[in-house]
């Protein structure tokens, strides 16, 4: 059965990828470099800013040490916070409130597993009045790797287990909500089933990778997915 639903952040909760792309472009310009068409989507989507910047610089023959990457990451984060604070209305995805209500009504736990840094996530959650629903947030600050590696998801399960020891939570009892191929790969590598939401990639691309795919979050039939988990659990017990 499902015991927890783990959300990605950028591209699932907030439609802010255009902001991130703009800020990455600005950082490269300050390095006298130019982002190529499609390069952001190929190199950065679903990954941490640190890994994104490291690979973009490396592909241009620039080897950046960890201190310099931290400096660039922090600079981008300051610019992101400034832009978000200046927005009159956050570009949250429609149906998010209803979906969170469905999850909470089903007595499932919620968490966020993201490659964004905590400062950015906390700002959006506070402004959107969603912070109370996400007690567990695993951000880029918490891990040294990035999606598609599963470390972030595994750490989220560990922290949920610490917060709710009575759950005896296993990765296979978690449902991940993702919008990128790297994110889907990370959740699957952690042993989770994944819903792909076609906010960032086309539906057909996500459909090849995820267990379920929807165009919009409010289309997701949580009851049907719970039935799938229950039937699989019953079959396992009968073997």
From TrEMBL:
Signal peptide interval: none
Alphabetically ordered keywords of this record: Hydrolase, Magnesium, Metal-binding
Cofactor(s) the protein requires to work: Mg(2+)
Coiled-coil features, chain-numbered ranges: none
Top-rank taxon: Bacteria
A Pfam family annotated for this UniProt entry: HAD_2
Molecular function as annotated in GO: hydrolase activity; metal ion binding
Record family assignment: Belongs to the HAD-like hydrolase superfamily. CbbY/CbbZ/Gph/YieH family.
Protein name in UniProt: HAD family hydrolase
Organism lineage string: Bacteria, Bacillati, Cyanobacteriota, Cyanophyceae, Nostocales
């Amino acid at each position: 059965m499902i015991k927890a639903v783990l959300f990605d952040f950028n591209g699932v909760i907030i439609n802010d990828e255009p902001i991130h792309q703009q800020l990455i472009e600005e950082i490269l310009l300050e390095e006298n470099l130019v982002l190529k068409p499609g390069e952001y989507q190929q190199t950065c989507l679903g990954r941490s800013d640190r890994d994104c910047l490291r690979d973009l610089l490396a592909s241009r023959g620039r080897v950046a040490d960890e201190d310099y990457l931290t400096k660039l990451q922090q600079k981008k984060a300051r610019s992101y916070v400034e832009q978000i604070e200046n927005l009159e209305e956050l570009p949250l995805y429609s149906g998010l409130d209803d979906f969170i209500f469905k999850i909470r009504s089903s007595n499932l736990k919620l968490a966020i597993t993201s490659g964004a840094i905590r400062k950015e996530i906390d700002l959006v959650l506070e402004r959107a009045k969603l912070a109370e629903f996400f007690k567990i947030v695993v951000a880029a600050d918490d891990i040294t790797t990035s999606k598609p590696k599963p470390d972030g998801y595994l750490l989220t399960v560990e922290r949920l287990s610490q917060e709710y020891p009575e759950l005896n939570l296993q990765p296979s009892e978690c449902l991940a909500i993702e919008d990128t191929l790297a994110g889907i790969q990370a959740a699957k590598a952690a042993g989770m089933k994944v819903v792909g939401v076609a906010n960032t990639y086309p539906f057909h691309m996500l459909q090849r990778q995820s267990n379920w795919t929807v165009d919009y979050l409010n289309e997701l039939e949580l009851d049907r997915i719970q039935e799938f988990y229950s039937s699989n659990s019953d079959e396992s017990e009968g073997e």
